Amino acid sequence: MSNEQSAETTAPYGGTPQTAGGFSPSDSTYLDGIKKIRTVHLAEAKARGEKFAMLTCYDALTATIFDEAGIEVLLIGDSAGNNVLGHESTLTITLDQMIPLVAAVSSAAQRALVVADMPFGSYQVSPEQAVESAIRLMKEGGAHAVKMEGSAYYAEHVRAVVNAGIPVMAHIGFTPQSEHALGGFRIQGRGDASAKVVEDAVTLAEAGAFCVLMEMSTNATGSAVNKALGPVPTVSIGAGADATGHVLVWQDMMGLRSGKMARFVKQYANLHHIMKDAASAYRNDIRSGAYPAPEHGFEG
């Protein structure tokens, strides 16, 4: 165990530190004993057969709540283009727009690993551009790591960013930034195409990616990637259950966004209705004169 791991497993977070080789789902888990989640802890979780949770996050208050809940990884996704800025796709959000969101989350998260998406146009031109953009996300945004979409073609970009001292999470399978090239929102890794997804994952891991996220790939492909990567942890969003971690867009899983959900989304709350009912009650109180009441004012 490294000094970093030893020092950061002494004070439990919702549990007690777990000794090597002793993990089972019913026990206090290894990750529960980590005060500050690092990339090495995710790799150790995979080695122990332990899962971790990841959610998107775009602001400080939400980051505080998710951190208190024990979510291990917070992703400031380029999905902020849709869920924060109201764009039709992730393609239009810029690096300058991403950085304040990353800074808000990183300022509030005390335990979670904060991963920032590299938006479309911020790394595709060259490995040098990728390094420059990643540095801004770390230096100005306070990110702990960056996420980069793309196939094995981007191995040199990943290698350059990692060599600059910045951890990279690779993103394969369905990559939203390439939705037009992929022909829309299509499941990846079907049939013979599975081998290509696995090859991409292995190549990007060999380039230095500390983790590989798989999106909208078949269960069999997700399982094959997880096995092929050995000690390198994986994250799934609609890519089967065998990954080390799983991620969802928080507005989807909590029902803040209404409408049809992707098949892989499980909703744990219905915040849309809760917030709508609260806003309606507030409006009705104002219209009726029930608010503000005398106790909401100041005398003298």
UniProtKB/TrEMBL annotation:
Pathway: Cofactor biosynthesis; (R)-pantothenate biosynthesis; (R)-pantoate from 3-methyl-2-oxobutanoate: step 1/2
Cellular location(s): Cytoplasm
GO terms classed as biological process: methylation; pantothenate biosynthetic process
Active site: 215
Gene3D superfamilies for the chain: Phosphoenolpyruvate-binding domains (3.20.20.60)
Cofactor: how bound: Binds 1 Mg(2+) ion per subunit.
Binding site for Mg(2+): 78, 117, 149
EC numbers on record: 2.1.2.11
Keyword flag Methyltransferase: yes
Source domain of life: Bacteria
Keyword 4Fe-4S attached: no
Stretches for region Disordered: 1-24
Annotated Pfam families: Pantoate_transf (PF02548)
GO cellular component: cytoplasm
SUPFAM superfamilies hit by this protein: Phosphoenolpyruvate/pyruvate domain
Molecular functions (GO terms): 3-methyl-2-oxobutanoate hydroxymethyltransferase activity; magnesium ion binding; methyltransferase activity
Binding-site positions, 3-methyl-2-oxobutanoate: 78-79, 117, 147
Cofactor(s) needed by this chain: Mg(2+)
Keywords of the record: Cytoplasm, Magnesium, Metal-binding, Methyltransferase, Pantothenate biosynthesis, Transferase
Principal localisation: cytoplasm
HAMAP family, sorted: PanB (MF_00156)
Cited function: Catalyzes the reversible reaction in which hydroxymethyl group from 5,10-methylenetetrahydrofolate is transferred onto alpha-ketoisovalerate to form ketopantoate.
Subunit structure: Homodecamer; pentamer of dimers.
PANTHER family reported in the protein's UniProt record: 3-METHYL-2-OXOBUTANOATE HYDROXYMETHYLTRANSFERASE
Family: Belongs to the PanB family.
Protein name per its UniProtKB record: 3-methyl-2-oxobutanoate hydroxymethyltransferase
Species per Swiss-Prot/TrEMBL record: Rothia terrae
